[in-house]
Amino acid sequence: MQPITSRQREVLDYIAGFVDRNGYPPTLREIAGHLKVSGTLGVMKHLDALEQRGYLRRQSGSSRGIILAGRTAQTASIPVAGVVRAGLPQPAIEDIEDRLAIDCSLVKGGTFFLRVRGDSMINAAVMDGDLALVRPQATAENRDIVVAMVDGEATLKRFYRCEDHIRLQPENPGMEPIIVRNGEGEVAIVGKVVGIYRPLD
């Protein structure tokens, strides 16, 4: 392998440590946060250089698609567990319609796919027909894209917890947020969306 700069070595060591701790690679923003830089352009340049020198390779279509050299990309079979609406909440449909094999490094904690229906998240690059990779968890941070149950019906939105309500925000300027005020309804987080996959054929 060709020599790399100290900054590139820092990026590589961070990725390796992140994978060892979490079981999957970091996003560009997580790498940028570690490097204490505001944008991801510099991170992409470091990754390009590391890829050209044979230290890693990247998979398109995934925000965590980094595979370190020397680590075999084993695959896991992940169920497509039904449909979630990126729009108004609708009854959750759970029906294993397919299974897809993806890199094990992207999978952790019972991850599953849901097929997206609707266009309320188009400005977050989530389109009708996409497969959302969901990591089950009962909590979320502000700005996380989540699958949430609102009074028993499922929706895919960006999550915000405010002082007296929860806001499920669409990423489509033509659509209104779902506001659930304390004591007026129930919101349960099904999981966090950790990846979006889109067939190109």
**Overall strand count:** 12
How far is the first residue's CA from the last residue's CA? 35 Å
Quaternary structure state of the chains depicted: single chain
Order of helices and strands: HHHEEEEEEEEEEEE
Annotate the secondary structure layout.
Elements: H1 6-22, H2 28-35, H3 41-52, E1 56-58, E2 66-68, E3 75-85, E4 90-91, E5 93-103, E6 112-117, E7 131-136, E8 145-150, E9 153-161, E10 165-169, E11 178-181, E12 187-197
Helix pairs in contact: 1-3
Organism: Geobacter hydrogenophilus
Subunit structure: Homodimer.
Domain LexA repressor DNA-binding: 1-65
Task: Describe what you observe in this structure.
- It comes from Geobacter hydrogenophilus.
- Its EC number is 3.4.21.88.
- Keywords: Autocatalytic cleavage, DNA damage, DNA repair, DNA replication, DNA-binding, Hydrolase, Repressor, SOS response, Transcription, Transcription regulation.
- By secondary structure, the protein is an alpha+beta fold.
- Helix 1 crosses helix 3 (about 40-50).
- It has helices at about 5-20, 30-35, 40-50, and strands spanning about 55-60, 65-70, 75-85, 90, 95-105, 110-115, 130-135, 145-150, 155-160, 165-170, 180, 185-195.
- It is globular.
- Helix content is about 20%, strand content about 40%.
- It is built from three helices and twelve strands.
- The mean pLDDT is about 85.
- The strands form two sheets. Strands 3, 4, 5, 6, 7, 8, 9, 10, 11 and 12 form a ten-stranded mixed beta sheet that branches. Strands 1-2 form a two-stranded antiparallel ribbon.
